[in-house]
Design brief:
two-stranded antiparallel ribbon; 8 helices; Recoverin, domain 1; mainly alpha; single chain
Length: about 170
């Protein structure tokens, strides 16, 4: 029976990698696991630390690590994360951080953020000033888009428009 940590490892191992069996994890997903589980904090444990440890425990020509190598990597990271604890105790603490975690998919977050960000541009009731003048009564922007150019050689609204042929 797989431990909670192994289940989390497998979920991250196959994340975005349909060819993965879940037995090995690549560096990108290893970094994601560390990030999503709160192991990487940007201060004590940085993404550079994670990359260094990954490259240290993996086989020379391999692009992935096994759960056994992952355990070694986590023991090493736990020494930075939980200074003063034994590697085994630190590993247990890291496994607790991993418990029940799944790879966070960012699409939902960004869609929500994007939707809110453009609302201000698409809600015509919030338009003011000259932008409001371009709207008709129904809130549609036809008035501002109509080609109202006059070709009288005077600019639009010029006070002397149409007086060229008239003599004083």
């Amino acid at each position: 029976m797989a431990s909670e940590a192994e289940k989390t490892f497998q979920q991250f191992a196959v994340f975005g990698d349909s060819s993965s069996s879940g037995a090995e994890i690549n560096n990108k997903n290893f970094s994601k696991l560390c990030q999503d589980c709160g192991i990487t904090d940007g201060k004590t444990v940085t993404s550079a630390d994670v990359d260094t440890v990954f490259n240290k425990v993996k086989a020379k020509d391999a692009g992935t690590i096994t759960f056994q190598q992952f355990t070694e990597a986590m023991k090493e990271l736990s020494q930075k994360c939980f200074q003063g604890k034994s590697p085994d105790q630190g590993l247990q603490d890291i496994y607790q951080l991993m418990e029940g975690k799944n790879p966070a998919t960012t699409s939902g977050f960004y869609q929500a953020a994007r939707a809110g960000a453009v609302d201000q541009h698409t809600d015509t009731s919030k338009y003011s000033g000259i932008h409001q003048d371009c709207l008709d009564d129904s809130g549609k922007g036809t008035a501002g888009r109509e080609d109202t150019s006059d070709n009288s050689d005077y600019g639009r609204g010029h006070k002397a428009a149409g007086t060229y042929d008239k003599k004083n």
